Amino acid sequence: MAASGDRRSSRSTRSADTAGPVELTAAQVRADRIIATGLDRPASPPDLLGRLGVQDSAGWSLLALANRVGTGAGAPVVGRPDQAGDVDAVLVWSLRGSPHVHRRTELDALARSLWPRSAESAFASLAGSGSGLRSDGIDPRQALADTAGAMRSIITGPMTKGEASAAVTAAAPPECSAFCRPCGVVHVREMLFRCAALPAGIGLQPGTTPVVLEPLRPRAPARTPGEHRGGVELVAAALDRYGCVTPGELAELLGGTPADVRADLPETVAVTVDGRPAVTTPDLLDRITAGEQGRTAEVVRLLGPVDPLLAARDRAVLVPGRADQRKLWPALGFPGAVLLDGAIAGLWRAKRSGSRLDLTVEWFGTAPALSRRQRDALDREAELVADVRSAASVRLVLP
């Protein structure tokens, strides 16, 4: 993650009073996040397509957007990268090199805020590719700039990821590539390729298999090493969405290092969440403690596998049990989550059978005795999932 290169000042975490950190409960923070991410479906939903965007996997970002308005028809249309002026939402590799839907007008500022401010920031942002570059003694920011330059010159129209990777491998300096065991060939390092796409002005066509890359319109200016700013706004957006976190958790979410996050934190208040240390801002602390939990008491939703509520790294706020956390966030193949009256009560998986969608629920612990209201709400949410996934009918399978 890159952070602001200007307005550097010494910011220190302070407690709300001399007695120590403010004690919060996971229930308070969870309720605040449900409201902050719009899952209570207010008349004016929050803007999820701002700086953080909405993560996508197999098109599930559409359910995340529809879940805030209660209808598939109300969700923004995600267009092709070259549809400037027609469709505002666009799919790009952004945070952590993962596909996210963002507003097109946010992309230039986002690219600047994600550009690493130091070699250490770049190593962290590039994950496995960063480790390889470090062991090979290569400047990661220069490799990122070289890869972005190659992508910008080569990808001038739609290209599959494989075609683009092969062409960039040939055009970029050799140090940008490495042997890939799964592919059995030498090609441009995966995370380097992904993280260079946005600064190169390259987006992704939605719903394509294999992935198709395409230039963004309008084309953003080329990035160069050292050009990084906007980390303050990026950290502020993450704090606003999740209320209170640790710098380490923010670094995991945004990419980069905890030191980057600490440099970009506003004035903060020390808190604990069920005894676990975290920080928030005075305004956000007021929001969390405002007693709004009642707004989430009857919220029932079927959250998609990459819903923004599930993205925070302090997973115990949503799911206290470690075994249940492993089920909801496995290494591969994330399921969806069942939000039942403001708490994560289980998970669900989808299976297509012709034009019918089967949604199978697995509860955490003993199956709840569902009221008629809860069962009717789950049925309505299953219909929403079917609408978003273009299924003619849906069957909700409950244990």
UniProtKB/TrEMBL annotation:
Residues 1-22 are annotated as: Disordered. This is Winged helix DNA-binding domain-containing protein. It comes from the Bacteria. Keywords: DNA-binding. The lineage of its organism: Bacteria, Bacillati, Actinomycetota, Actinomycetes, Nakamurellales. GO terms for molecular function: DNA binding. Pfam families: AlkZ-like. InterPro entries: AlkZ-like. It comes from Nakamurella leprariae. The keyword Transcription regulation does not apply.
